[in-house]
Each structure stands twice: as structure tokens, then as C-alpha cells.
Amino acid sequence: MSLKDLKDVTYYDLNNEINIPKDGKIQLNKDKEALDAFLKENVEPNLKKFSSLKERFDYLIKNQYIEKDFVDKYDFKFIEKIYQYLKEQNFHFKSFMAAYKFYAQYALKTNDGEYYLEQFIDRVAMNALLFADGNEELALDLANEIVHQRYQPATPSFLNAGRKRRGEFVSCFLIQPTDNMNTIGRTINSALQLSRIGGGVGINLSNLRAAGDPIKHIEGAASGVVPVMKLLEDSFSYSNQLGQRQGAGAVYLSVFHPDIISFLSAKKENADEKIRVKTLSLGITVPDKFYELAKNDEDMYLFSPYDVERIYGEPFSYVDITKEYDNMVANDEIKKTKVEARDIETEISKLQQESGYPYIMNIDTANRANPIDGKIVMSNLCSEIMQVQQPSTVDNKQDYIEKGTDVSCNLGSTNIVNLMDSPDFGKSVDSMVRALTFVTDHSDIDVVPSIQRGNELSHSIGLGGMGLHSFLAKNQIEYGSDESVEFTNVYFMLLNYWTLVASNKIARERKETFSNFENSKYADGSYFNKYTNKYWGPKSDKIKSIFKNVFVPNEDDWNELKQDVMKDGIYHQNRLAVAPNGSISYINDSTASLHPIISKVEERYESKTGKIYYPAPYLSNETLKYYKSAYDIDMRKVINIYAAAQEHVDQSLSLTLFMRSTIPEGLYEWKDGRTDKMTTRDLNILRNYAHAMGIKSLYYVRTYTDDNQEVGVNECESCSI
């Protein structure tokens, strides 16, 4: 028997019975039966067997399935020890979906695809051994964190760790051209190269001159950003890892760029094929000034990036539009176009209804909270990465005159349910930070020197969280309640504290900080003031009881950390980011990211097998009422949860809005007496609320239509932890 000859299997039918109620109840036992059948009928007969662990490793190395170098950093007796430890932990998948996803997408298979070469603990061992880099104590700690599913490396890291033939460990990239043909050409080349090696690519187009702007020495005018978008989309489509995955890219544009309407129009279903972009994701950067103009129903001016750069001496993205708006309006040397702010606001909402795009990046909010010297100008494919960048200058030979700094994303996630059960929260986080540090230290993207340089200088990582809704339901807390917001606040305060402790410890061990640390708010101590002036721990009895076995730092603890950081620095420029969680959350038997579930029993369509059903984790009679669908929850409650986390996260969080095309009665008070259909006004109100609550970015708007379809659903596997 082989994986290609599977016949008469029962697990699909058993899993499908979950969707058939019996006596009015969900048949949750059928999921366990499907899991047992899958392991018995699919995994066990098709797992390549070896007489010993040594024989297995020799086979994998000889046949070039795994790398030899990282294995050689350990005495083989230690490898046997770590395997013995992993076996003793008695790991079991808790759902059919978890096992199915692992073996379908993550388990190493023979070259012919006939047999599995590893089980879950083998993948755990590969991750632990690789990321510990020869440190036996750290390898055991990481094995402990990953096998107990307290820590989940990002998909590229978890999948590729230890493999001989692999992609990169990093998740995604951020790059930006400046306003000349050389950097545009270099950016297209970079998009090709980065898409080839894996991960989504975010590109900031705000610096490019608008359609109609002059071109020096040439009679004529620029074509604007849309043709560049088309070139990038074609690049991603071409560079798709031999057809294994669709190249993924996102482009960002300032809402004050003159091409903003054509930028948004390129995504519309009825757009002319010459300008329409089908697979490219769209995001816009929105300064505070836009919200002010829209609120006051005023005209707004769109400014020529060519003229702004000529007058201000720096690329368009680096000019503070909120601060300089009136000066730019008054400056006759800057070409400008007058539009109505609310017309732009409506166009954004229309497109979000139709496609889920654009993402919204509240650029002033991001920079106000930024403790690093420099400016954040864009985000990534999933809107959670926000790091300072410096523009590059390229000559006619496509060589760098001035090498700027661009971004690679080194991501991982805590599993909230399991980390809250850790015997030592701080030690768990320390191990996670060290695993992510291995990824940033060993990332060497030489095909794009600006990304290579940015990573070398920043050592940035992004630790996040998944499983918030499952944690709340398990503890019988309603999603969006005051207690849920309080828990989220304390949890992410702890992540912030312990990642700072770990980063400070690594800086002290290595006698090295991230570049330009001395000009950060960490160095002068001002970053810590909000923590030293106020207690951020739990206040309600319920949340106090949840954290009763977890150390919660008080003002004195924060002050001590402040002194340590001011003295020895921190190693990582950025530490925290909450990405969306795709298939990897199923392997963790977890709800995705921080957002609510879609349904109590989720229906997933798998291309080769059809529908698979996934009951919400910890679903029972006791937790049933705490599992309300995201589509039936007031999105302000979701925003409140994310705002509580954002308070402590130095980067951002992928916040998806879930809407019904017909709004349930009583969900939003402003709908009373009006149509129950979702309108652009609803989305305008929610975006403004998110901005007022300090949200840095909004990811997709997902709409559940009256004919049971979802609009704005596009799972990004590269960033989806």
C-alpha cells in the first residue's frame, strides 16, 4: 500500500457525519472516530519504518532529505535523548483536521510521494535541533515548547526546518521603490526573486509620481502607479516556485496620492482588463488628516509626489502629511487635485464590500507608537508588520548607490491556551525568542541587498498569539466582554515584558544591540514610562484567578527592566506582531489568531478531498454558548479586543472585519430605522471607530452574503504563521 493507492478509507465519511446532527446534537464523537481511522488507514501503513533512530537519520542524510550540518552539531546520544523525551510526552492530535493538515502539508514524504518519512515529533525534533544551533539545553527547551504546542513557528520555519531541499525560514518581505526608473526596475527584479524563494511581498508605491506628472528630459508625462501594479502582478504570477504556489504580493498607496482612485478601481470586477489586477492585494496608508477631513465633510487635496519630493527633499512617504497638509495646500509649486474626502471614503467602502480590499494602515497611529528612530511607511501582505525603513538609491547599472533598509518577517506564535498552562511563562517566551533569533541571524537574502541589510541591522522578529477565542470559551468568558478585553490586555502585556527581558538578556550575552538603539525610546527609558506609572495587571476577580499561577510584573518590575535595557540594550529592533493563522492553527487545535470563530463546526473545502469539518476546539455543552460566530458579533467588540493587544504590541495585528450583507437586527444601533443591508456607511463608521481606538491596521473585510458565500476570503499561507 502507498499514499497513492488509498482505497476504501472511512475517515472522510466519519468526519462528514459531524455535519449531520443526531437527536439535535453535533456528533462530536465522529471527529475522534475519523481521527483514529485516519491514523490507522492512512498514516500507519504508509509510514516508512526503520530499525533504529540512527538508521533513520543515516537514511535521511544519505538520500538528501535532511541537512547534515545541523545534526553534526550534536552528539547522537543527545539526539536519542531528545527523541526519548518527545516520546514520553505522549503527543496526540486532538482532531481529524489537525492530523490531516499535518500529514498533507507539513510531514516530510519520500521523493515519489508514496510514503511519510516523519511523524509530528520528528518535525518537532527538526525544529528544536535546528533552532537551538547546537545548544543542548535550548534544544530540549524548544522541544518542550513545541511538542506541548505552546510555541508554533511560522509555516515556512516549521515546514522547512532541517530539510535539505527547502525554501527560506522567513515569512514575507517589505520593499519600496523611490521615484525613478532604476529603483522601479530593481523592485520588479526583487519581487521576482523574493517570490521565487517563498513568502509574500509587500511593496510601497506611494513615492512614485502620479499619472500626468512630468518626466525630466522627455516630452510627455508619467503613466502613474497602475502600470507598475500590472508589471508586479505579472512578476508574481511568473515567479511561483515551479507552480507549487501562486506568487503573492500586496501594494500600498497613500490615500493622498493622486492615483488613489485608479489604484482602487484596478481591483474592481468590472475594471478594464488593461488595468485590472486580479491577484495583487491592495492596501492604503491613511494619515489622521484624512479622518479629520472626512469627518468634517471637507474637500481634500491629492498631492503630486514628484513636486512634494522636489520641495521637501525626501520621498513622498516620508513627508508628514497631517503636519504639512495646510502648507502643501498653500504651496503653488505643488500640483494638487481637489476631491471630496467622503467620496474617497465611500470608494474605499464600496471596494471593501466587493472584494474585501483595501487593507487600511493608519500611518500616523503607527508612527506615534513607534519607539524606533525613523519612519514606518508601509506594511506587509497581511498588515501586521510595521518597521522603519530607509529608501535606497540605484544607479543606471542597477547597482546600489545608497543601500537602504527593507524588511523580512521572522514570525512565530504563542498558543494562548497552552502557554497559559506553562509551568514557567517567562522561560517559555525566552525559548521562543531564541528560536526566532536563530531565524533572523541566519537569514541572508542576498538577492535583495536592502532586505539583507535591513535584517542585519534590526534583528527583528514577530512573536504573536493564536487561540484567543478557544481560550475564552474554555474559560467560559464571552468574546468581546469586559473580562475578555482585560485578559487580552494582561496576556499581551506579559508577552511584551518577557520578550523585552529575553531580548535584553541576549544583548547582554552578545554585547550587541540592534543598530541605532541609542536613538530609540528604549535607550532613553521613555518607552517604559506607561508601565512604571501604572499597574497593568488583572483587576477583576475572574481574570485574577486565571493569572493566579502566573507572575505578573508590577511597576517596580518594569522599572528594574527599564534600568537593564537602558544599561545593556535589547537585541531586537522589533519583537511582537500578530499574524493571521491559516492551516497551522488547525494543527494546534486552536482558533485562528485573536478573532472569533466563523462557525461552531467550520466547513473547509480541500481541493483533492472535498469538504472537511472542524469542530471548534473545546466545543462542549458547557462552552457552546461562548462560541458565537464572528458574523454575529458587533465588530466594535473585536476592535476592542485588538486594541487591548495593540497597546503592548510594537508592530501590528492582522484584524479582519466580519460582516453580513444583511445585518442582524439590533447588532448596530445606527441601523435602527434604516435598511438592514450592509452599506458603505457601516464600514465607514467601523473604520473610524478602529482609528479612534488606536488600531494600526485593518486586514480584510470578509462579507457573508445572503446566498451563503464569503467575499474577501484569501488565506495567505506565507504569513499565516
Automatic annotation (TrEMBL):
The keyword Nucleotide-binding applies. It is an enzyme of class 1 (oxidoreductase). InterPro entries: NrdE_NrdA_C, RNR_1b_NrdE, RNR_lg_C, RNR_lsu_N, RNR_N, RNR_R1-su_N, Rrm1. GO terms for molecular function: ribonucleoside-diphosphate reductase activity, thioredoxin disulfide as acceptor. Residues 327-354 form a coiled coil. It catalyses: a 2'-deoxyribonucleoside 5'-diphosphate + [thioredoxin]-disulfide + H2O = a ribonucleoside 5'-diphosphate + [thioredoxin]-dithiol. Its EC number is 1.17.4.1. Keywords: Allosteric enzyme, ATP-binding, Coiled coil, Deoxyribonucleotide synthesis, Disulfide bond, Nucleotide-binding, Oxidoreductase. Provides the precursors necessary for DNA synthesis. Catalyzes the biosynthesis of deoxyribonucleotides from the corresponding ribonucleotides. Belongs to the ribonucleoside diphosphate reductase large chain family. NCBIfam families: NrdE_NrdA (TIGR02506), RNR_1b_NrdE (TIGR04170). This is Ribonucleoside-diphosphate reductase.
